[in-house]
């Protein structure tokens, strides 16, 4: 299946992408991909090192006549988001990604593709291997664990890098040049609760919300996509208000930076109310499906009979949980006053798990304004504390402040217009790029970010445009030949 990928042009980058996608590389389990990249650099006879946290750095001397130019640091992250459709049988820890070509797109079979940020990694590998492309001194920085905490970038110490300009290859629209990004913080609520024996005279149901698109909780938070955790909570709250349901389990969402696509709940209701309950839930499901018909045409809400569980939540904890999730903000919170059409602040209620006497609610709060980020985080904390939860803030990372006077920005704008006959869009994004973190220890490094067009990142619908990769490669090569 992946042989078709290797025939795509330019072969240099697609072959490296196929090689990379044969290596399992989940966040926090990057040992195999670190070894893969280390072996790659050493086989080329290049200076290849790892730092104290596992980031890989490979340096390549300039081609003849370009030794006088500034060293360029090319940066991408090694890990990828692992998401799959619920009917896909796949083990991310042991299997390589199965890819296929459909029209202008490369996709994966029922899983995330890993183009985020595998295309950047592949492009850097292709440059390191090339003997025909003119370039200044190069320093490749392959960071780890970008998707679940950016701990690679956070752990990179000052003085390790030698480059003066950093090209981050991790954005997802080929007509954009990124000069800023949002920071983020994980807001997590915990609570224990007393389990009760399931009441007598009840019937049990499995309530499933699925078929949602999911996607990147930064880049796509403004698109009005459905959040499975909010939809599930709306259904459960309605059932509780009308029929005094009792919840046994909830399992919704998976990764903090992915808009949740699926949620499953196990609940019971008094037998005497079963028919009315089924009708009410189906009526509300139809209403929600009509509300989201444009953005989520494949949304499914399914209610089926289940085995009665032994335990359910206590009434007090259940009531507070449903009200807290209802009240907690999800989606865009504020738009930027500084840049048109830029989301400033948002929250993603990413994961909700309930069962065996424990509640855990995981959110990722983002903002390009640090004070606004923490203001929303405090608002969420207040809501969850009213539900008797303990709330923690973890994994905080800074935003990347735009520098509209950047020297490398002017070069990229000039090269883009020369190559493609139009001006690029100079933007800041609502995703979390590593530039803000790296800039803390390398404040004098001139940074810029760009990449090929990738759609549906962080979901099994992830895909990368073949024509866009050709454009991206042409742009990258031209940039390296025209750096300061």
TrEMBL record:
It catalyses: Hydrolysis of dipeptides, preferentially hydrophobic dipeptides including prolyl amino acids. One of its GO terms (biological process) is proteolysis. It is an enzyme of class 3 (hydrolase). Pfam families: M20_dimer, Peptidase_M20. GO terms for molecular function: metal ion binding; metallodipeptidase activity. The keyword Hydrolase applies. This is Cytosol non-specific dipeptidase. SUPFAM superfamilies: Zn-dependent exopeptidases. The lineage of its organism: Bacteria, Pseudomonadati, Bacteroidota, Flavobacteriia, Flavobacteriales. Belongs to the peptidase M20C family. GO terms for cellular component: cytosol. Its EC number is 3.4.13.18. Residues 211-293 form the Peptidase M20 dimerisation domain. Its cofactor is Zn(2+); Co(2+). Keywords: Cobalt, Hydrolase, Metal-binding, Metalloprotease, Protease, Zinc. It comes from Costertonia aggregata. InterPro entries: Peptidase_M20, Peptidase_M20_dimer, Peptidase_M20C.
């Amino acid at each position: 299946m992946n042989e078709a990928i290797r025939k795509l042009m330019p072969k240099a980058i697609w072959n490296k992408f196929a090689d990379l996608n044969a290596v399992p590389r989940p966040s926090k389990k990057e040992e195999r991909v670190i070894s893969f990249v280390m072996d790659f650099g050493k086989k080329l006879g290049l200076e290849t090192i790892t730092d104290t946290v596992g980031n890989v750095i490979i340096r390549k001397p300039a081609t003849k006549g370009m030794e006088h130019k500034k060293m360029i640091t090319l940066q991408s992250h090694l890990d990828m988001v692992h998401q799959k459709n619920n009917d896909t049988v796949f083990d991310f820890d042991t299997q390589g990604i199965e890819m296929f070509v459909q029209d202008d797109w490369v996709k994966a079979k029922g899983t995330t593709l890993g183009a985020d940020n595998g295309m950047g990694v592949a492009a850097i590998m292709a440059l390191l291997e090339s003997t025909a492309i003119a370039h200044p001194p190069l320093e490749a920085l392959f960071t780890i664990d970008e998707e679940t905490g950016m701990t690679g970038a956070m752990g990179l110490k000052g003085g390790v890098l030698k480059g003066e300009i950093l090209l981050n290859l991790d954005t997802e629209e080929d007509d954009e040049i990124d000069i800023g990004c949002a920071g983020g913080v994980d807001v997590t609520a915990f609570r224990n609760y007393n389990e009760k024996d399931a009441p007598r005279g009840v019937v049990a149901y499995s309530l499933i919300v699925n078929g949602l698109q999911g996607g990147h909780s930064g880049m796509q938070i403004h698109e009005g996509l459905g959040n499975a955790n909010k939809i599930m909570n709306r259904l459960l709250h309605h059932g509780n208000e009308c029929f005094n349901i009792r919840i046994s389990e909830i399992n919704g969402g998976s990764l903090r930076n992915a808009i949740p696509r699926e949620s499953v709940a196990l609940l019971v209701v008094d037998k005497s109310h079963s028919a009315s309950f089924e009708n009410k839930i189906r009526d509300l499901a139809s209403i929600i499906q009509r509300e989201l018909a444009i953005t989520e045409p494949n949304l499914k809400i399914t209610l089926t009979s289940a085995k009665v569980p032994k335990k359910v939540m206590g009434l007090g904890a259940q009531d507070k949980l449903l009200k807290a999730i209802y009240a907690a903000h999800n989606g865009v919170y504020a738009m930027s006053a500084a840049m048109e059409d830029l989301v400033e602040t948002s929250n993603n209620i990413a994961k909700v798990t309930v069962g065996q006497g424990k509640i855990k609610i995981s959110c990722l709060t983002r903002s390009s304004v640090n004070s606004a980020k923490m203001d929303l985080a405090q608002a969420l904390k207040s809501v969850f504390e009213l539900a008797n939860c303990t709330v923690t803030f973890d994994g905080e990372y800074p935003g990347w402040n735009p520098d509209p006077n950047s020297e490398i920005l002017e070069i990229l704008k000039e090269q883009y217009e020369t190559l493609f006959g139009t001006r690029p869009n100079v933007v800041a994004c609502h995703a979390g790029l590593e530039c803000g973190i790296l800039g803390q220890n390398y404040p004098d490094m001139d940074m810029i970010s760009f990449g090929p067009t990738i759609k549906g990142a962080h979901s099994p619908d992830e895909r990368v445009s073949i024509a866009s990769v050709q454009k991206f490669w042409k742009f990258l090569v031209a940039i390296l030949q025209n750096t300061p």
